[in-house]
Each structure stands twice: as structure tokens, then as C-alpha cells.
Amino acid sequence: MSVSPDRHPQVPAAESSSAKLPRHVAFIMDGNGRWATARGLPRTEGHRQGLEALRRTIRHAGKIGIEVITIYSFSSENWSRPETEVSFLMGLLRRFVQRDLSELHEANTRIRIIGSRSDLEPGIASLLQEAEDLTRNNTGLNLVVAFNYGARAEILRATRALAQKVLSGDLKPDDITEADISEALDTGGLPDPDLIIRTSGEMRLSNFLLWQAAYSEFYFCEQHWPDFDEAAFEKALNNFCSRERRYGGLDAKAL
Ligand code: IPE
Ligand code: IPE
Ligand code: MG
């Protein structure tokens, strides 16, 4: 996918001939709590403002023609936070789906949820299902919501599913391929993330997309997630466009 000037006008012309827009950008939306604390506000206010940043990000991704964005909205480890914060985050997700679903559907966005559904409140699980079902045939931006998501748990679920196939005689252990594993993950059928953006200065994956990130480019910025805006997104994309992805091979210029 070449970046043409009208497709992505912010990329300087000199870079655009070799630059490629990422097909899939994944976001570790971090720093809501610190954003709020720095302003003397409760952490929950940071999460509320974080939702606004998410809405901006979705709109911008759709506008510039990114194919897939994945957002890390609640990790399987986030259950260890105080109960009041956890229930606020659950309520925020519920409100997000209830208020934004029709608009996302009208914008032709396809929603997909990754993560475990097993320990979710039935009300939330059915809302997530409704969002997926309603938007299943949409052909615009793919919005992948990582909710109650942990990559190790995802790999474990995939391993169990493959083991079941072996047990039932549908698959031989020696025939298992990397593609089979990719397909058995919650992200089966999606391209791997080209770019993973984490806000708020932490440089770790925090159990996000461990298998899928094998050849992702990483971009870390100091801004807290509620401050992430179109300009910050463009800066990350421009940085991505300037990188040479070698996949273990050699720089094109060295050949
Ligand atoms: C990210 O912000 C949102 C979630 C993890 C749900 P944090 O809540 O982690 O904010 P910090 O990292 O404590 O500032
Ligand atoms: C990662 O952020 C999870 C989400 C953004 C949803 P955390 O704030 O939970 O990660 P750690 O605890 O700093 O590793
Ligand atoms: Mg955090």
C-alpha cells in the first residue's frame, strides 16, 4: 500500500515513494490515571477523557484509510485494580457501546472483540456480541477491541483448541503450522499489527499481542492517552513511514 499524497497528505513527498502506511495499528492506551492525578482529578476522569481520545483516534484512522486498529481497553490483569475503578471501566465500556455503536455502524466500521468472554457480566458479554453481530458485514475500518484480554491466556485458549483437533483426529501434531496457530488465536484472519503505539512513557507490552507482535514496529510517546490527538497519531505514522523493516533480511539499499 503506497502512500500517495492524497491518501496521506502529511507524509512529506520525499518519503512517500518508499513509505507505506501501516495496515494495522495497535494502541496500548496508557496513562489515563497519571493524566488525571497530575490535574488533581480522580483517576476515573482520566478514563472519561481517554474515551474522547479513543473517539478521535477511531475517526482519524477511518479518515486516512487504516485497515485495522486494535485498542487495548482492559487487560486480564486489570481486574487487580480497586473494585471502584474496575466497575467504572465496565460502565464506561457499556456506555461506549450503547452510545457509539449506531454511529460506528453508519460509518461502516466492523467491530471485533478479542479476549476472554468467560468471566464477564452477562450484560456486557451480550452487548459485545451485539456490536460484533450488527457490524459483521461492514467493510470500512476494522476496530478490534481487546477487552479482558491477555496474550498468554489467548495463546493458551488457542493451544487447547488445537489440542482438541489433535484428539479428535482432525490434525496431526507434526502438521501444525504457524498459520494454524495464528488462525486459532482470537485475532485469526486479521493481519499482524505493523505498528504498536504505547502512550505515557512505559516501554513494555503488558501481555498484549505477544504472538502477533513478532515483527511489529514499536512507537512509544510520553503523552498520556487522554492527550493523544490527530497530530500525535500523525507523528507516530510519519515515524513508522521512515523505518526500514527488514524481517531478518538486509536493508534494500544493501542489496
Ligand atoms: C490506561 O490508563 C487505561 C487502562 C489500563 C484501563 P491507566 O489506568 O493504566 O493509567 P496509568 O498508567 O495508571 O496512568
Ligand atoms: C496496559 O496498561 C493495559 C491497558 C492499556 C488496557 P496497564 O497500565 O495495565 O499496564 P502496566 O500495569 O503498566 O504494565
Ligand atoms: Mg497504566
Automatic annotation (TrEMBL):
Which positions bind Mg(2+)? D30, E217
Q: Which cofactor does it need?
A: Mg(2+)
- Per the Swiss-Prot or TrEMBL record, the active site comprises D30, N78 (proton acceptor)
Q: What InterPro entries would the database entry show?
A: UPP_synth-like (IPR001441), UPP_synth-like_CS (IPR018520), UPP_synth-like_sf (IPR036424)
Gene Ontology MF annotations: transferase activity
Which residues make up the binding site for substrate? 31-35, 43, 47, 75-77, 79, 81, 198, 204-206
Q: What is the cofactor note?
A: Binds 2 magnesium ions per subunit.
Q: What is its EC number?
A: 2.5.1.-
Q: Which domain of life is it from?
A: Bacteria
User: How would you classify this enzyme at the top EC level?
Assistant: transferase
Q: Which UniProt keywords apply?
A: Magnesium, Metal-binding, Transferase
- Pfam families, alphabetically? Prenyltransf (PF01255)
Subunit:
Homodimer.
Q: What does this gene product do?
A: Catalyzes the condensation of isopentenyl diphosphate (IPP) with allylic pyrophosphates generating different type of terpenoids.
Q: Which family does it belong to?
A: Belongs to the UPP synthase family.
Q: What is this protein called?
A: Isoprenyl transferase
Q: Which organism is it from?
A: Roseibium salinum
